[in-house]
Design brief:
Mean pLDDT: 90
Number of helices: 19
Structural class: mainly alpha
Number of strands: 4
């Protein structure tokens, strides 16, 4: 059944590989089950209900990705967007969380319309091939940077922004051990090398005191969604503030998703000769449907996760990888203590190594033409430095359009890229 539906042999994979890939993706993104409720609860939302909403939003979006798009990508409430929701819209601007969740709901509906009209797919197809390859490399640096931070290897520093952390610290040592273990298994081409590293680091974390074993029952019923589900407030629908909030949600989610799909697809070898992603429309629908459904349940914007690259690195090539992730998120509703115990230092090695894997498309970039090389470089470098996939795309796109136009190569720029540049400039002015 799985072979026929997901066409495993056609994609050079099998059930074992897809399941291992799904496990790896889930392990690298399971942190959202603890982090999303923690962030959104600062907006006054009920924390236990948020745990259920987070898991269900992930299940919904990833199942659509699995069965409709049949691509190995997972979805969950997005980092960054949840912080904007809680700290800017609610705590900063003083609006109730019901107004913010309404903005997310409207954003999801707009995305469904834009996807149905093929506008989002047109944006993906309009991005030049060199920038598409650079998006993959930029995401690689971004993921590795996140992993190094999670391990405490790179830390904040007031003078230089970032600096080397305490390499004798528990988290750093556990992460380095996991990195070495995964690296050795990768050398011997063992399937599941990243997953083995995660498990090994988690076990090493028990005596080190960073892996906290569950106390009490492992199985419990998920908390009720009643305190946060369908709590919409349309009273500010036509205000300028609501429009600005919706615009920011739209902008960040659209280009984070586009960047993730393009970058991971480039690494997986999914892009055709014209740089198009197979079943991109269906993948974008999964994102739009998940955001809309997630808002109904009571959580911030749901998006395609860049950590999906870890599953692709393990050989995941079909929707069966996504199905495995969805089933694990469903299980997490009843086994929350077991999944939350995995420390950030244990998943850090996988993120760092995935960052390495994502760098390979950089070899395909044309560095001889400065109108191609400079935009590609901006795309790569701005993702980790601005801590945002979307900002990397903004800088890459704007520099591409400006350089091509001023160099007399304006005919090489599609009209979609010109329109995007106008929106990007407006985004800076808003």
């Amino acid at each position: 059944m799985f072979e026929k539906f997901f066409r495993l042999k056609k994609h050079g994979t099998n059930i074992k590989t897809e399941v291992i890939a799904g496990l790896t993706t889930f392990m690298t993104m399971a942190y959202i089950l603890a982090v999303n409720p923690e962030i959104l609860s600062n907006a006054g939302m009920e924390k236990n209900a948020l745990y259920t909403a987070t898991a269900l939003a992930a299940v919904t979006g990833t199942l659509v990705m699995a069965f409709w798009a049949r691509l190995p990508y997972a979805l969950a409430p997005g980092m960054g967007l949840n912080a904007f929701f809680a700290y800017t819209v609610v705590l900063g601007l003083g609006y109730p969380w019901q107004m913010a969740i309404t903005a997310v709901f409207i954003e999801g509906l707009i995305f469904i319309i834009l996807t149905a009209l093929n506008i989002r797919e047109a944006i993906i197809n309009a991005i030049p091939m060199n920038i598409k390859h650079s998006i993959s490399a930029g995401i690689g640096l971004f993921i590795a940077f996140i992993g190094l931070q999670n391990a405490g290897i790179i830390v904040n520093n007031q003078a230089t922004l970032v600096t080397l952390g305490d390499m004798t610290g528990t988290g750093a040592l556990i992460a380095m051990a996991g990195l070495i273990i995964s690296g050795v298994f990768l050398f011997f081409r063992v399937r599941g090398a990243l997953l083995i590293g995660i498990f090994a680091a988690t076990l090493l974390g028990i005596p080190a005191g960073i892996t906290h074993l569950p106390e009490g029952a492992l199985i419990s019923l998920p908390p009720s969604l009643e305190p946060i589900a369908f709590k919409f407030d349309f009273s500010r629908l036509f205000t300028l503030d609501m429009l600005i909030v919706i615009f920011i949600f739209l902008f960040v989610d659209m280009f984070d998703t586009v960047g993730t799909l393009v970058g991971v697809s480039s690494k997986a070898g999914f892009l055709d000769k014209k740089g198009r992603i197979p079943r991109a429309r269906e993948a974008l629908f999964a994102d739009a449907i998940a955001t809309t459904a997630g808002a109904m349940m009571g959580t911030s914007t749901t998006t395609t996760y860049v950590e999906s690259a870890s599953g692709v690195a393990e050989g995941g090539r079909t929707g069966m990888t996504a199905l495995t992730v969805a089933l694990l998120f469903a299980a997490s509703l009843f086994l929350s203590p077991l999944f939350i115990m995995i420390p950030a230092a244990a998943t850090a090695p996988a993120l760092i190594l995935v960052g390495l894997f994502m760098m390979s498309p950089v070899a395909k970039i044309d560095f001889n033409d400065m109108t191609e090389a400079i935009p590609a470089f901006f795309t790569i470098i701005m993702m980790p430095l601005a801590y945002s996939i979307s900002e990397g795309i903004v800088f890459g796109t704007l520099s591409y359009v400006i350089l091509k136009t001023l160099s007399g190569k304006w005919k090489e720029v599609s009209w979609v890229m010109y329109i995007l540049s106008i929106f990007f400039i407006l985004k800076f002015l808003v």
